[in-house]
Amino acid sequence: MKLRKNVAVSEAGLLFNPVTGESFSVNPIGTEILKLIREEMTKAEIEDVIILKYATDKTTFEKDFNDFIGLLSSNNLLENEEKKA
Amino acid sequence: MILSGCFPRTTSWKMKKRKLNIAVTGLNAIDSPGPGISVIRGLREATSFDVRIIGLSYESLEPGIFMHDLVDRTYHIPYPNAGIDTLLARLEYIHEKEQLDVIIPNFDAELYPFIKLELKLRALGIHMFVPTLHQFEEREKVNLNSFGKKYKIHVPRSKVLYDLRSVHSLPSEFLFPIIVKGKFYDASIAYSLEQVKTYFNKISAKWGLPIIIQEFIHGTEFNVTGLGDGKGNMIAAVPMRKQYITDKGKAWGGISIADETMLKMTRKFLKATKWRGGFELELMKNQSADLYLLEINPRLPAWIYLAVGVGQNIPEAMVNLALGKKVKPFSTYTVGKMFVRYSWDMIVDREEFEKISIFGEL
Fold first, then answer.
1. Closest-CA distance of chain B to residue A18, Å
2. Out of B220, B261, B336, whose CB is closest to A18?
3. Which band of pLDDT confidence, cut at 50, 70 and 90, is reported for residue A84?
4. How far apart (Å, rounded) are the C-alpha atoms in residues B181 and B209?
5. Is the peptide bond before B8 cis (omega within 30 degrees of 0)?
6. pTM of the entire structure?
7. B361 phi, psi to nearest 5 deg
8. How many Å apart are CA B291 and CA B222, to the nearest integer?
9. Of the candidates B148, B156, B228, which has an alpha carbon nearest to the alpha carbon of residue B187?
10. Nearest 5 degrees, angle CA A35-CA A38-CA A43?
11. Which residues in B121-159 are b (16+ Cβ under 10 Å) and which e?
12. Which residue from B minimizes the CA distance to A16?
């Protein structure tokens, strides 16, 4: 689970894919998760950070995180998911 | 005797730049804009020369005629259907008054006469950097199928129609929707045979025959603008994704991107055709990320100023190539820069409109 190197993430939560020219906006927690992904944290480590900081439980985190990763993947924003630019 | 000391004594001398008289067409900065104004903005920002811009217009209400901060003087020129000799006579007159160094034609429809006149204009001391007649004809929409086959580039399947009766065979040859295109301009998506007939009539009334029917590729539209040196080398190339498209299919906003597959296709196109001059490739990427070449426009596009803005002043490079200067290929550009087009109401004195309308000069 690695965000593609050339994907730009702004402080305000805007993702820009320079290959396709697409832009995506993510909410503050999404931005934070992206930052943790960039720091090469594992899913378990990210879960610990988020559960400690926000009022959520493991089940909710698991569901939301998987949804989020699914979205990143379907939009070719993850390194290992991309086969064709 | 050995001269001692430092010469020149001052380092503040500036090289005097040559001032070029450059004539530019495509001053119709309207909702479906010609490239002229963007080209001129690039020329005005050139670092290797200064410019005096001579606008060449077809209609009296082309906005560029009245943009005096960009265009120094404008002359009407005859429409291409007036014939090559009429155009040459008019250009000779303009040259006598303005001592033109370079002409940059910016419309597909006028390129044929300008290409035909290239040698005669060169003899007068006027330079251009346009495709050869062979290159111009080979990439025409009517020849796109064979172009794709010859150069092994993915192109959508297409068929050329010369009369309305032949549309009846289309349902057995294509899946709807299909694109109905004019020879030079205009394209519409047709979802039924009835719509094909409507667009056939509408487009052929405006641009003549033939009409081109093209397979519809579902996907995202991209464009690449660039410059070929005529020897197979890529001097410049900038890919762009359209972000806002008008009802006429024109980009009203776009962003520079870093797609290596598009640059690879551009290099392949230039190497194979030895393209000479500016160009715009219209590309479509489908869901499986296959890239299709939809069209090759044999001139700079209206969004060319984005290329200037990201570090590739293509109009400047084109002028230098036209003058026979060696131009170093651009190797980089800024990714993620956007252009956002806007419209602007100018206040124009009626006298100016009268001058250009009556005398054909302003």
1. 5
2. B336
3. very low
4. 10
5. yes
6. 0.86
7. -145, 145
8. 10
9. B156
10. 85
11. beeeebbbbbbbeebbebbbbbebbebbeebebebbebb
12. B336
What is the widest separation between alpha-carbon atoms in chain A? 39
- Tell me the one-letter amino acid at B294: L
Is A18's Cβ below 8 Å from some Cβ in B? yes
Interface predicted TM-score (ipTM) over 0.85: no
- B9: its two tokens: 């004594």
Per the CB < 8 Å rule, is B258 touching A18?
Answer: yes
Identify the residue among A9, A10, A17, A20 best suited for mutation to test binding to B, counting B beta carbons within 10 A and taking the highest.
A20
Residue/partner pairs of B194-199 with CB below 8 Å, 24 or more apart: B196/B167, B196/B170, B197/B164, B197/B167
Whether residues A21 and B288 touch (CB distance < 8 A) is answered with no
Q: What is the pLDDT of residues B213-232, one digit of tens each?
A: 999 999 998 999 999 999 99
- Reduced to 3 states (helix: H, G, I; strand: E, B; else coil), residue B342 is coil
Rounded to the nearest angstrom, the gap between the alpha carbon of residue B15 and the centroid of all alpha carbons in its chain is: 32
How close is the nearest chain A Cα to the Cα of B242, in Å?
9
Answer yes or no: do A18 and B240 touch at CB < 8 A. no
More confident residue, B13 or B26: B26
